[in-house]
Design goal:
Elements lengths: L23 H12 L18 E10 L5 E12 L5 E7 L5 H17 L6 E6 L8 H15 L8 E5 L5 H15 L20 H20 L7 E5 L3 H12 L3 E6 L4 E3 L6 H11 L8 E2 L2 H5 L2 E7 L15 E6 L8 H9 L3 E3 L1 H4 L2 H15 L5 H26 L3 H20 L4
Parallel strand pairs: 3-4, 3-5, 6-7, 6-10, 10-11, 11-12
Antiparallel strand pairs: 1-2, 2-4, 7-8, 8-9
The structure holds nicotinamide-adenine-dinucleotide.
Nicotinamide-adenine-dinucleotide binds next to helix 6.
């Protein structure tokens, strides 16, 4: 069977969506259409994946420091909870929309099922630019939002985590608010917490480490050596910085690194510890002693591994044709547009998709949740070993599915994930 594009498929949309402005939800629906032919008898249940299980839209009023009352729009979407409680981050951003949160929640269902952690998918957000808020306003916003969505979240219902513009402090406020309302401490209601409040060792490096582990697996499958391989990384933050460090430590040559201020290059390999120390001290790569190149040159660098680990939409129709990497491993969420995906596939570039490659973060969030339940905390070696095992197993089963059906790893990850979700749905049955 060949992969099919089904952009023309029409969907019976729920009445709350505007067909003219579906945004990322449209991309997600097309991805589901693409895998439906591979789902066998489970395709009878596929409509389940096209409708979020539960959507909560909340008004979040807060008193500003100057006495004004302001209202913000907040969401929590539980896309699917057939395999376990909802799991997914909370995004604070002025452009967040319901359609975007729906799509992000659905991709969490796929990611959690692809790596086989016992969660459904969920996501939350508030339409707010948090940089415009004082610390007190941010705390009040977070606490009121947590209270409003408190009716559907909980350690065995739906477990939020950080996403864009939310961090350990926001998670600490969420945990505290939920616990105060409940009358008991419930550390397992969120993950990505500070270590002192039930957070997990290894969480900070987990996504970059997962990227590194799946890259090693891909290299092994393709008969490529990691030692001496040329690696290009976009993003010197949590994901990109950690991945670059691990590649460097494994003897690969990270020949280029880009962040929002600078793009640096050295064909013999950059001094990654020094570059990351520079970022830690100055906030960006700007001013680091290395050759600067243009973004166009960056994407066109000849290399074995290219790791986009910054933002969405970075590999697009404008630059995908110039890519000379053999393998692209998506550290970021959605860094490749569907058009770029097709161009890269035509040009023979091997692609490891985000739903597999960056699942290390949610995997260690799962460990955090398990540790919180038992109040017994593991050491970092144990966490890294378990993470490595889960990421390897996930890569292997997705790669096996890709070979069986002669499809890309992205489609294979969706086949594996959608099959697991719909099997669970079928086994549970419909009530009544
Ligand atoms: N942190 C996690 O656990 C995690 C888990 C899964 C997915 N992700 C995804 O990985 C991506 C990166 O997340 P992060 O946590 O590393 O964020 P981060 O804020 O720590 O780092 C982002 C990096 O991207 C760079 N950047 C920003 N704009 C850029 C631009 N225009 N051009 C080049 N570089 C630019 C920044 O300078 C920074 O180095 C996001 O897509 C995120 O959703 C993160």
């Amino acid at each position: 069977m060949t992969e099919q594009s089904s952009a023309q498929t029409t969907h019976a949309l729920p009445s709350y969506l505007d067909p003219a402005h579906l945004g990322p939800w449209d991309t997600y629906l097309r991805q589901v259409d693409r895998v439906t032919p591979y789902l066998g008898h489970l395709s009878r249940w596929v409509e389940t994946l096209k409708r979020p299980k539960r959507i909560l839209v909340v008004d979040v009023p807060i008193e500003m420091d100057d006495g004004r009352i302001m209202h913000f729009e907040g969401y929590r979407v539980q896309h699917n909870i057939s395999r376990g409680p909802g799991k997914g981050g909370v995004r604070f951003h002025q452009d967040v929309t319901l359609s975007e949160v729906m799509a992000l929640s659905a991709w969490m269902s796929i990611k959690n099922a692809a790596v086989n952690v016992p969660y459904g998918g969920a996501k939350g957000g508030i339409r707010v630019d948090p940089r415009q808020l004082s610390r007190g306003e941010l705390e009040r916003l977070t606490r009121r939002y947590t209270s409003e969505i408190g009716i559907i979240i909980g350690p065995s219902k739906d477990i939020p985590a950080p996403d864009v513009n939310t961090n350990e402090q926001v998670m600490a406020w969420m945990m505290d608010t939920y616990s105060v309302n409940l009358g008991e401490t419930a550390t397992g209601v969120v993950t990505g917490k500070p270590i002192s409040l039930g957070g997990s060792l290894g969480r900070r490096d987990a996504t970059g480490r997962g990227v590194f582990v799946v890259t090693c697996e891909a290299a092994h499958d393709l008969g490529m050596e990691l030692k001496g391989a040329r690696v290009v990384v976009q993003g010197a933050g949590n994901v990109g910085g950690t991945a670059a460090r691990l590649f460097h430590e494994a003897g690969a040559k990270v020949i280029a690194l880009q962040d929002h201020k600078a793009t640096i290059h050295a064909e013999e390999g950059l001094d990654i510890p020094a570059a990351l120390a520079h970022v830690a001290q100055h906030g960006s790569l700007e001013g680091f002693a290395a050759t600067n190149i243009s973004p166009e040159e960056f994407w066109a660098l000849e290399c074995e591994f290219l790791i986009p680990a910054a933002l969405e939409g970075q590999l697009n129709a404008g630059n995908a044709g110039s890519v000379r990497a053999k393998v692209v491993v998506e550290g970021a969420n959605g860094p490749t547009t569907p058009e770029a995906d097709d161009i890269l596939q035509e040009n023979g570039v091997f692609m490891v998709p985000d739903v597999l490659a960056n699942a290390g973060g949610v995997t260690v969030s799962y460990f955090e949740w398990v540790q919180d339940f038992s109040n017994f905390f593991w050491n970092e070696d144990e966490i890294n070993q378990r993470l490595t095992r889960i990421m390897r197993d996930a890569y292997k089963s997705v790669a096996q599915t890709a070979r069986e059906h002669k499809v890309s790893l992205r489609t294979a990850a969706f086949i594996v994930a959608c099959t697991r979700i719909l099997q669970a749905r079928e086994m549970r049955g419909l009530y009544p």
